[in-house]
Amino acid sequence: MIIKNQLTFSPDSEMLVSEIADSISQKEWGTFKDSLKAPIHQWFTYPAGFSYKAVESSIKNHNIKKGHTIYDPFMGSGTTNVVAKKLAVNSYGLEAHPFIFEIAKAKLDWSITTKEVTDALQNIEGEILSHNKDISESTQDALRKEFPELILKCYEKNTLQELLIIRDSIAKQKLNDKTNRLLFVGLASLLRQISSVATGWPYIAPKKKKTTSNGKLPFIEYKKFILGMLYDIELTISQADPYYADSNHNIFNADSRNTLGLIENSSIDHIFTSPPYLNNFDYADRTRLELYFFGKAKTWGDITRTIRSKLMTSATTQILRNDPRYILSNELHVCCPEVFSYLCNAVQQLSQLRLQKGGKKSYDLLVAGYFNDMYESLKDAFRVLKNGKTAVYVLGDSAPYGVHVPTDLFIGKIGIGLGFSDYKIEVLRPRGGKWGNNPQRHKVNLRESVVTLRKD
Predict the structure, then answer these.
(1) Contact in structure between 196 and 154 (CB atoms under 8 Å)
(2) DSSP for 304-318?
């Protein structure tokens, strides 16, 4: 079933989610499940990832060909761009998180010199063999000086020492940027696999021991993973369009709310993206383990200054209650009065509800900031998209403190206000069912949808 823009606006916006989801075969499009074992896509399990199959399908269904250009304004770890390169389609991508941007960049570097990589692995192995395996008191002191407490709690000391040697050995070698980036991503991907405690997404639990890492030797696992990455590149190239190397891929560690100077007006043939959901997911905090290990941050404050402050609003941890950024913008009011009116009521409800809750989370300002930011990103997307082309958004709705916000419907409505000629919504699947027995959770039925905006 497809919900089109002639649908009468309903503030409640309760749809027959289960019935609709049963008629859609692509229920996993909004998840990383398909990509977990796919060459290159599997290099780094990003919790905000989506299925590469969704991109392939969108490119096919919207008749995107070699020489056309696809754009992902919320690139993440590069799923859209990797698919585009394999199909010899040009691409643009923006990612505001600098660490995740480096992951995406590595995934697009296919001209890797195998010998340089294997030589680097030999040098790393030599460094490890030259170190005394016994953990002396001085070594423990060195680890304590090098890493924040969280890292010390996540690894056995011998494991952490070997990981540090690998990290520092990569830095000491005079490698080209592509090889260095490949080795960096391989090490980043290894960190959660061999931790001695629960470090799976989304939370790190230092007190919860895990047994799956028992007996794993860091360098052995690292070498295996790096050689697997080289194989992934070879396999992907063998399956790629013969002209993949002629395609251009321009990716930036930048903000999709304003791409002036990066992407020209009316230059994009298709947009495919999955923006942050309005679900209080802190994308900066979810990479805390990696940021701490690589020395990109040492404290929560470091992460706020270098990353969290640059990201689109999606978590209450980003919010200061006296910041005018979190007041619904007048531009949104002019663009789409009905959405603005609904959001004003939702913000007012949430501002009262938060005072009754133990956490007093600033969901009121989160909703305002989220739609202010999405408005700016949609406005920029309209600018860069060619006439007669489409923009596809995979996203979910939300219900903070039980106040339903139909994000998919609102993205469509705001799009119309910005000048898009039409939109449709295809509901992929229901969401939130696994928390149904939690007495603290709201009872609103949530969904994940594909919103398609057309510019004529």
Answers:
(1) yes
(2) HHHTGGGSPS--GGG
Whether 171 is covered by a domain: the verdict is yes
Which token pair is 364? 């009121």
Which of 333, 383, 389, 343 is closest to 364 using CA atoms?
343
pLDDT digits (tens, 9 = 90+) for 370-396: 999 999 999 999 999 999 999 999 999
Q: How many CA atoms lie within 13 A of 21 on its CB side?
A: 17
Residue 77: alpha-carbon gap to chain centroid:
6
- Residues 259/104, Cβ–Cβ less than 8 Å: no
Confirm whether 216 is domain-assigned: yes
Q: Exposed, middle or buried: residue 330 (CB in 10 Å: 0-12, 13-18, 19+)? A: exposed
- 128-154 pLDDT, tens digit per residue, is 998 866 667 677 888 999 999 999 999
The label of the residue with tokens 């010199």 reads 113
Residue 4 and residue 118 in one domain: no
Distance, CA of 156 to CA of 164 (rounded, Å)? 12
Judge contact between 274 and 148, C-beta under 8 A: no
* Percent of the chain's residues with pLDDT above 70: 88
Q: What is the pLDDT of residue 212?
A: 82
Domain extent for 391: 1-30+316-456
* Model pLDDT, residue 134: 64
Q: Is 450 helix (H, G, I), strand (E, B) or coil?
A: strand
